[in-house]
Structures are given as C-alpha cells and as structure tokens.
Design brief:
Helices cover about 55% and strands about 5% of the residues. With about 325 residues, the protein is α/β, with parallel strands linked by helices.
Length: about 325
C-alpha cells in the first residue's frame, strides 16, 4: 500500500501529551495561553492538580472496569479541581453521569486511560488533535507523569528567581512565601529538582526554556518549542484570544512585554538581592542569570530563623484564611 509523504510525516509526529511545568510564577500561564493558540494543541486554561494525587492514591479506586469505581475517580477529580473541570475545559462539559458511561464503554479501565479520556474529549471538542496540561508543581513529579504517560513531552520554563520572588510576594497568602530567604529556597528547589529529573530523560522528551528568552526572542523561542514538540510553527501562537474572564489572568490577555523581565533590579532592595543570592546564587548562575553580589551562603542559624519566620506566618494565615477570604 502506497504511503504519501504527508502520511509518513504524520506517523513521525509526536502524539503524546504536553506538560508545561516550572516553579510557580515563572510565566507558565503565559506560555500555556500562547501554545493553546496552536491549531493542533488543546490546553485547558487552568491547572489540573489532580494527576499526582491520583497517582499517589491509585489503589483506593479498586477495579476500574466497574462503572461505580470510574465514578469515584471522577468525583475525586471534581473534589480536587472543581473550577478547572467546570470552567477551564473549553471543549467538554464535565458531567459525571455522561462520562462514566462513555469511559466505561470505551474500555478506559485504568487511571491514566480515564485522565487521557477526559483531556482527549476536551481536545476533540475544541477541534484539536493533541492534549496538554499546565500545572507548574508537576515539575517535581516527572517520574509519575511518565509512569502514566510514557510518550509525554515536558516543557520546563525557568524564570529569574528574583522576579519569581517578587511575584510570589504579590500573592504571599496563596503560596505562603513571606521572606526572601524562603523565596530563594522555594524557587531553587523547584528549578533544581526539575532540572535533575529532566536530565535523566532523552532530549526529545524534555526541554528547558528561560522565560526571559521567550520575552526577548519570542519567535525564535516558540519555533524552538514547536520543533521540540514536532509541531509546525505558526504566527497564530502570538494572537491574544479571550477564552475566559480577563480578570482571572489579566496579563495573558495582553501581548508579550519585555518589561516583565528584570523587575528585581528596581523593585528589590539591596538587602533582598543579597539575601536571595546568598541562598540561590549558584542556581541563578547555572541558568545564565546575572549575579551581582558576592554573597556567601547564610549561616545555619540565619536559615533556621527565616524558615521559622515563614512557618509561623504560614500557620497564622492558614488559620485565618477562611475569614480572610
């Protein structure tokens, strides 16, 4: 049987899911919204959060050839990520009764098959061929993702940790980051863990990209991502399309702004810069970010004091948060 060049190209094209990961506040949402403009790629506009908890508790759901157990899985997903499932899937209505019947009839009797089924249905509803997900913290759980989705491709976005710290401080009660030392440890732990796990993967499965390079060289960066994903580059990636409430993620409804890089130069105090670089200077340098102080690592006493400070404030605000909200 004759195979056309187009069919051969389609057969070579990666078809696995795409995961956008990184430290929180690293620009992953911006990349998510740009990449979802691709005519073949479906990316929900929120964060799933349920894949790792389901992986950690997979024995709790029993025999998934039984519809009632599929229902338990879908309910657990809804309990974990209701907003995501009800508002961020733009090609699927998450109706448990309907989905139980469909997933059971399709023979989706494992947790990864059920998860894929949800995302694939959403992709088809959007007229797309391939699904993806943006959930930053998955960067520290890459083996779990690949256990369930061995053909997945990972895009790890890395942003200057000092700008990440500033962004975290702007939402400190969401991320429970209350001082610069802790912010540096927080950022460094995500970046280094993701880098270490990613280095164990083949180059066609894992790529790193700096957020700053995406802002300063957007076309080259998106071409690099598309080449990695095996997808054709298109200028549509830079379209600004409102698919949800702009108030939810205001910056992604605007064109890319190079001014979003390097804010720490003017918005961090000299003390904060010194504190951050004393903790994470080596990691900043490793990923090509300028380090401007000869800061030595903080003493154990200083580290302990700032961890205690962050722990106490976290406990206080967690206790207050229901009233605070």
């Amino acid at each position: 049987m004759h195979t056309s060049p187009d069919q051969t190209e389609q057969a070579k094209r990666p078809a696995g899911p795409i995961f956008i990961v990184g430290a929180p506040r690293s620009g992953t949402t911006m990349l998510q919204y740009r990449l979802r403009n691709h005519p073949r790629i479906s990316l929900p506009t929120g964060e799933s959060h349920f894949i790792v908890p389901l992986h950690d508790n997979q024995k709790a759901y029993g025999d998934l050839s039984q519809p009632e157990n599929i229902r338990k899985v879908l309910q657990a997903m809804l309990d974990q990520s209701r907003e995501f499932l009800e508002t961020d899937l733009h090609g699927l209505k998450f109706d448990i009764d309907t989905l139980v019947g469909e997933l059971h009839a399709e023979g989706r009797h494992t947790l990864p098959a059920i998860i894929s089924g949800i995302f694939e249905k959403n992709a088809r509803g959007e007229g797309k061929m391939r699904w993806g997900d943006k959930t930053p913290y998955y960067v520290t759980h890459l083996p779990k993702l690949l256990d369930w989705f061995p053909d997945a491709q990972i895009v790890h976005l890395i942003r200057d940790g000092r700008d990440v710290a500033l962004s975290l401080f702007g939402r400190q009660h969401d991320f429970y980051v209350y001082n610069t030392y802790f912010a540096a440890e927080y950022w460094e732990s995500y970046v280094e863990k993701g880098h270490a796990l990613g280095n164990q993967l083949p180059s066609q499965q894992y790529m790193e990209l700096r957020y700053e390079d995406l802002l300063t060289h957007p076309q080259d960066s998106m071409k690099q991502i598309c080449k990695f994903l095996g997808e054709a580059y298109t200028s549509e990636l830079f379209d600004v399309v409102s698919v949800d409430d702009p108030g939810k993620t205001p910056l992604v409804h605007e064109p890319l702004k190079i001014s979003n890089a390097g804010k720490w130069h003017s918005k961090m105090s000299a003390f904060q810069i010194h504190a951050f670089e004393s903790v994470a200077g080596n990691t900043l340098h490793k990923f090509g970010f300028e380090v401007i102080t000869p800061a030595r690592p903080p003493s154990l006493i200083v580290k302990a004091a700032y961890r205690l400070h962050n722990m106490l404030l976290t406990a206080f605000w967690k206790r207050l948060k229901p009233k605070y909200k």
